[in-house]
């Protein structure tokens, strides 16, 4: 299987303030890849760098250091022409379906416009393709929606429309940033199911940014990988079922144990570990040590001094933790 997107040693620093002298390290040393036709979920709480990473993967943001490869080619070294040829192959779906769609355009034109401009489709062919794409995302009967506007749709319907628009370029990868966070609870599973179907039926690689563990499990149950982000670093990554069913990093364990469960009996009896701090770590390029050390109940002196690297603990499962893992495996 070929790599669709590969991120190597990516760091991102945002600079601001007077003379841009204040530097914030938002991502550091990120290595991540998704192969063609696969699934990947990036999980973490708010402020951990998920959106920045997804935007860098989609070439909407540029890394301060490191490389991003699309289908084996370094996008930082591509000419404009080369990039233009590949751009349609990687599509980005925004978090907010309420502001990402033009409110004064009909649903037909939202899907048709990119087909007109990029593929030169007209009249009958255009109508046929718009109908096909709307059916692919479950907006049926498609003709019923043609002359309606985004405000006629629910949040879930709008997200489907945004996905239909993304499909107009026949992408090989879709990157969706928190695609269910602004949608009613009852519709969330159906949107994740839609991404699963696009992956299964059309072999489109899908990267989802999520903070909902239940949704991450549902998406990677059959296949796919999960990367857990904390303080701009990947602290655990690997096969979805391994990471989510057998979490080894102390942050992943807390994240999973504190996610809501439907069974009231289970919820009542569950012991949730309390962290030493719930503050989002603010890191600069000079920060030392593990980003989770200030919150971790198991930290040792070394955690404050040295940044742990990702180490394999079993096949396709890595963690970055001085306490729970060393080069010989899990302690
Ligand atoms: N353009 C920017 N300039 C300065 N700081 C930024 C910029 N974009 C993001 N940040 C900061 O980077 C950090 C990570 O932001 P990011 O949006 O990537 O996190 P996130 O995990 O996606 O959080 P959320 O789920 O809240 O979107 C935050 O502290 C944010 O304030």
The run of helices and strands is EEEHEEHEHHHHEHEHEEHHHHEEEE
Give the percentage of residues in beta strands: 15-25%
What is the CATH T-level topology of the largest domain? Answer: Rossmann fold
Ranges where pLDDT stays below 50 over 5 or more residues in a row are: none
Ligand roster: adenosine-5'-triphosphate
Explain this structure to me?
With 331 residues, this protein is an alpha/beta fold. It folds into 2 domains: 3-89 and 171-278, 3-Layer(aba) Sandwich (Rossmann fold), CATH 3.40.50; 103-168, no CATH class. 34% of the residues lie in helices and 24% in strands. It has helices at residues 50-57, 80-87, 107-119, 123-136, 142-146, 155-167, 185-202, 213-220, 240-245, 250-257, 264-269, 301-305, and strands at 3-16, 22-35, 39-43, 65-70, 73-74, 90-93, 173-177, 205-210, 225-230, 233-239, 311-314, 317-319, 325-326, 329-330. The strands form 3 sheets. The protein has an 8-stranded mixed β-sheet, sandwiched between helices. Strands 2-1-4-5 form a 4-stranded antiparallel β-sheet, covered by helices on one side. Strands 13-14 form a two-stranded antiparallel ribbon. A hairpin with a 2-residue loop joins strand 11 (311-314) and strand 12. The longest helix is centred in the middle third of the chain and has 18 residues, at 185-202. The radius of gyration is 21 Å and the shape is globular. The structure holds adenosine-5'-triphosphate (ATP). Adenosine-5'-triphosphate is lined by residues 14, 16, 24, 26, 44, 46-52.
